[in-house]
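Good day; I would like, with your permission, to put a structural problem before you. What I wish to show you is a protein chain and, alongside it, a tokenised description of its three-dimensional fold. Here, with my thanks, is the record as I have it:
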Amino acid sequence: MQLLTIATALTSLQTQGLARLDAQLLLLHLLGQPLQQRSWLLTHDQQALRQDQSDQLASLLARRQAGEPLAYLTGHKEFYGLDLQVDARVLVPRPDTETLVDWALECLQNGQAVLDLGTGSGAIALALKSARASLQVCAIDASAEALTVARHNARRLQLAV
């Protein structure tokens, strides 16, 4: 895939079936920009991509077209205001699960204990602890690999779960 500029890359990705948002997020990730800065692409749309970036973008496009979740490609997923690192060892946290966190916060009293079974990335446990520091939160998972991801997220976010 020979792409010359950010603008032509966006057009090419969309022509090849990628949703506009996915195309923007892949380019931001590839170019080392925060995923929340989509306007950056507009202000830098004439910036040329290096050949290695074009090659990496082609690889990311193929993986996305094969059905790999965007969060696995970027390595990140925002959940309840937290930037979680995710990969194939865990499921991608779903936005509708934030409703569960809201409900739990309504039900829980300060200082209560919470057990998150099958924590995966730690999304629910970390969101609860982030929203209410007084909760005692324990997260477990049958997968040691998933727990590695959850522990990493907890350390990086400095949340004692």
